[in-house]
Amino acid sequence: MAEHGRQHVRVAVIGSGFGGLGAAVRLRREGITDFVVLERADSVGGTWRDNTYPGCACDVPSHLYSFSFAPNPAWPRSFSGQPHIRAYLEHVTDTFGLRPHLRFNSEVQQLRWDPEALHWEVVTAAGDYTADVVVSATGPLSDPRIPDVPGLDSFPGKVFHSSRWDHDYDLRGKRVAMIGTGASAIQIVPAVQPEAGRLTLFQRTPPWVLPRFDRPVSAAERYLHTRLPATAALRRGVLWGIRELQVSNFTKRPERMRLVEKLSLTHLRRAVADPALRARLTPDYRIGCKRILLSNDYYPALTRPNVDLVSAGLTAIRGSTLVAADGTETEADAIVFGTGFRVTDMPIGERVTGADGRTLAEHWKGGMAALRGASAAGFPNLLFVIGPNTGLGNSSMILIIESQLNYLADFMRQLDTLGGKAALDARPSAVNAWNRGLQRRMERTVWNAGCQSWYLDEHGRNTVVWPGTTAEFRRVTRRVDLAEYQVLRPPRAPRRAVPAAATEAAR
């Protein structure tokens, strides 16, 4: 149905990564087919479409990094690479018949709540919609963050972010500067090192790195998982259970992480013989405070003769010379930023205008907050998949996504039960109570142990990570509690006054 030239849909889903495709599958399973999936690119995949850098792979085991309702018995490795994960998402799209709902090259430019009509006005690059419900599944790892380095604009060489890799640029023989030491950088460094003429890594803070117990999944295993799906489910269950048992070390007893630190230091000592280099690669904060990284080839790559480690961040660029905070100067032909993403200031927030005329970004100036990671006060019928405080430090985000899909499904059921035109708006008191509880729990976690990480916003608050088990998150998102919401109905039209002359005539 069209309204003023705009197509109206029951639900508009933003993004076609794991969150958006999962939402689409769940809507169809709930019998809802009047929805569109708005994707700014020309194919599905989200972060696994965008990140194509050399060595790109997942640091969560394959059988846990997939939907429970769409198991993949054919994963080729215990930790899968980007091409296989993207292929899996294409497979999910086809298996569940999602292509008719996809709208590619349809970047959402504006979302505005209409309090009179009780629906969202959705402006995209390829046309406009109105929607009763909007599901924002843009994901936290979608918009790259490049630091504002003085002189960057005048750098004569090549510059790109790890998630926007330029495959047309040949790094062979080039002087390459890698900025950052996060999850992407430790995969890029060993992949680029053999072909670069010189590779310089700018490291503000050394990461904790553990061995990556990766191996090919044998043909016999794949056959077994295909013929007996229960074996794949058992494998997934074991992987899940191990990580659930580790959660208390992150959330309640950070001191227990010392044993894991010893394992990481042993891993470092075996790979790096030079004591001076080893000292520069040794973290001085509790393991887990930043994301723990997995790699078998990162440390060995740093010992190669064509690699330099600068133990300071990049502070300025003068022509082709890169200047570090410690004064070190490095000549470079190319700069690769592995500096992460806009995680604590969700970019979609600048485009979403709520019931009071303010944007979501304005509401969240003091920090992101959403009821059960899904609903923000003043933004009726808007749900997040991977919203504030739903991230994980040691397990699979697919578990969190599936829990939020349960919440979405019950949200739609509640609207149906209410009947007629209705909207649900999270009560500010409920959002505040939920967020206060989270922040109290966060105080004793390893993520608040004193290091600076992408989990913390500009105010030092952790608005990214969930401070509990995935089982607990599933319990608290199983049902929508209507007491936490205001039920909105369309405003009644005022009664029209009857003219006195008409009254006399009636007599």
Question: Which key terms come to mind for this protein?
Answer:
FAD/NAD(P)-binding domain; globular; five-stranded parallel beta sheet; disordered C terminus; monooxygenase activity; 2 domains; 507 residues; alpha/beta; nine-stranded mixed beta sheet
Tally of contiguous helical segments:
14
The helix/strand class is alpha/beta
Look at the structure and give the mean pLDDT: 95
Q: What's the N-to-C terminus distance?
A: 45 Å
Contiguous uncertain segments of 5+ residues:
500-507
Estimate the helix proportion, in percent: 25-40%
Proportion in β-strands: 15-25%
Domain tally: 2
CATH superfamily of the largest domain: FAD/NAD(P)-binding domain
InterPro entries: FAD-bind_Monooxygenase_sf, FAD/NAD-bd_sf, Flavin_mOase, Flavin_mOase-like
GO molecular function, one term: monooxygenase activity
Protein name: Baeyer-Villiger monooxygenase
Organism: Streptomyces hiroshimensis
